[in-house]
Design goal:
Elements (H helix, E strand, L loop, with lengths): L2 H16 L9 H10 L1 H20 L4 H15 L3 H14 L4 H9 L5 H22 L3 H22 L12 H5 L5 H15 L9 H24 L4 H20 L3
Helix pairs in contact: 1-2, 3-4, 3-8, 4-7, 5-6, 5-7, 5-12, 7-12, 8-10, 8-11, 8-12, 10-11, 11-12
Length: 256
């Protein structure tokens, strides 16, 4: 298949997987790896939209209002899929079950108490951090949202790297597991780290450390999830997006 066609399919698939962009999906069977490798770029574009909304709303309303509007828009523009994956993954972990028994819990349509608590904590933390960012320099706030959102999507490539299996023979995990090479991951990590430099103007090292530290935590968590579930699923990918995004935000606003 020509490289140009694979890239075009990958871009379309990445947009339809990670956003509500009204474009025709690319063929999953031939573009999955490209789409997962492009996830940080889609995250950066989404972050640019959210960062702009935060700044615009922050100029018209109190910082907390601007933060909640931005978090809500982020959920809307991603269909809430990552939040759903977070809730399902935490519910499965909280059950202390392993393998197929844990996967059955993840497939249930309802959300259990562990999942509810995880959603509340993540949404509150993201809102609190964005409220803090809304009161900062505009460029720093914008860069922070772009970098954190891109880092969250880079976690998907980390989970889809070669050598990480799928938990089920069907579903999104089976389609994308093992499709991302180390070269694409390294390039994405460098790009995300550079995007984070302006997020803390007086300490340019803090941004890269924040996003790369969040990804390091995700790598450790991923190993645990693979042991518990047997591999990755679409829910696991969504959970990693939200966890890395939240940890990146926290690292970007730490002082001292």
């Amino acid at each position: 298949m020509p490289t140009e066609a694979r890239l075009a399919d990958g871009i379309r698939l990445a947009l339809t997987t990670f956003t509500t962009a009204p474009v025709r999906a690319g063929r999953v069977d031939r573009a999955a790896g490209t789409a997962m490798a492009l996830a940080p770029l889609v995250g950066a574009l989404l972050g640019a939209v959210l960062g702009g909304v935060l700044l615009l709303t922050g100029a018209l309303a109190p910082p907390l209002v601007a933060a909640v509007v931005t978090v809500g828009l982020g959920a809307l523009l991603t269909r809430g899929l990552h939040l759903d994956g977070l809730a399902d993954t935490v519910d499965a972990l909280g059950s202390y079950r392993r393998g197929p028994a844990a996967l059955e819990i993840m497939k249930q349509p309802d959300v259990g108490p562990f999942g509810v608590v995880a959603l509340v904590v993540v949404l509150l933390l993201q809102s609190a951090v964005l409220a803090e960012l809304a009161g900062r320099d505009a460029l720093a706030a914008f860069a922070a949202v772009v970098a954190a959102t891109a880092a969250g999507r880079l976690a998907v490539g980390l989970a889809c790297r070669r050598g990480v299996p799928a938990a089920r023979p069907e579903g999104l995990g089976a389609l994308v597991a093992g499709t991302v090479g180390w070269g694409a991951l390294a390039l994405g990590a460098v790009a995300v780290a550079l995007a984070a430099v302006p997020a803390v103007p007086d300490r340019p090292w803090q941004g890269p450390i924040a996003v790369l530290g969040a990804l390091a935590v995700a790598a450790g968590l991923l190993r645990h999830l693979v042991r518990r579930f047997g591999g990755i699923t679409g829910d696991v990918l969504g959970a990693l997006v939200e966890i890395v995004t939240t940890l990146s935000y926290l690292g970007l606003v730490l002082t001292g």
